[in-house]
Amino acid sequence: MSEALMSTYARADLAFERGEGSYLYTADGRRYLDFGSGIAVSALGHSHPHLVKVIQEQAAKLWHTSNLYRIPEQEKLAERLVAQSFADKAFFCNSGAEANEGAVKIARKYWSSKGKPEKYRVITFEGAFHGRTLAMLAATNNKKYLDGFGPKVEGFDHVPLNDMAALKAAITPETAAIMVEPIQGEGGIRAVPTETLRAIRKLCDEHELLLILDEVQTGMGRTGKLFAYEWAGITPDIMTLAKGLGGGFPVGAILATAEAASGIAPGTHGTTFGGNVMAMAAGNAVLDILLQPGFLDRVQKRSSYFRQQLAMLQDRYPDVIEEVRGQGFLLAVKTRLPNTDFQAALRDEHVLGVTAGENTVRLIPPLTTSEEDLAEGVKRIDAACLRLREAAKKAGAAK
To answer: Considering Cα of 32, then 38, then 40, then 41, what sign does the dihedral take?
Structure first.
């Protein structure tokens, strides 16, 4: 580990040289099934030929001009995302945290432009994760992330997830919006029930609030539909995207209705790198694949198979796996032992997963993962569970 790097990550002692499809390879040839997808980022897996071709061609032509000029690739991606969603307008940035920060600014600016600047507060939910900027740390309200960074940014109120009475009680004349992840990712793959999302939408309509959906992790096909809100049959006023949008190239987006975005004018928000031609080429290439006829149907079918297989492992190893959660290729195993132990056992079997809240390990393969690779992954997860069971038996015998 390099001493030159700041100590911000508890990194595994693994470095990868290349990737292909659902696999990552170390320099010495070890092959790992990537069921972490760079934390739900590598939607098309590694070295997808279409994505590689598009980025190589764009890199040979132009990388950056800034938003001082028209960017045709940006206009194209905006038009495509708008056409596939509830939205009328799009804004491009560089990350999920930046998208969420911008979404809150858009909501506050909307009410200010309507002559109600006192409406600036945003209600969020316990267990959420909206990013690591100072404002998004306040929106997330997790003591672990807030400690040591000074006073919390003002303007966020927090309620328990799925507690409608608490949510209603939190609404005041200063409330501008409600912000929610359809499935809490970092919080442990905790899904908001369809009826709750519908009730939140209704509450926003009744109280004249904007609904912000954080689909940074759930968007771009991850749940089996292009956007997770489609499962509930509702539409937000503002939605944020990132992660899978660029297939590994850094890009974020804010989508909004024309009404919600009506307070935004030249100079009210901006970015130097956001929407650059390289990121837009990547985003358009990802959409090329996701919008192919039958692609999302295959995601639903394969992810259903994967979840069924994980449920069978839960039945086989109830002493190791407490619960299987999630939707599409955004799944998690809640374990009966420390999730770091489960993650390490997976790694020993050359499977990569991502820890999350409530003692879970996320299993989030690329959307392109074949049924054969999923079956191979299940076999390796089975071996990891057996390894953990045997270790627990030995530890018990030693006592």
So the answer is: negative
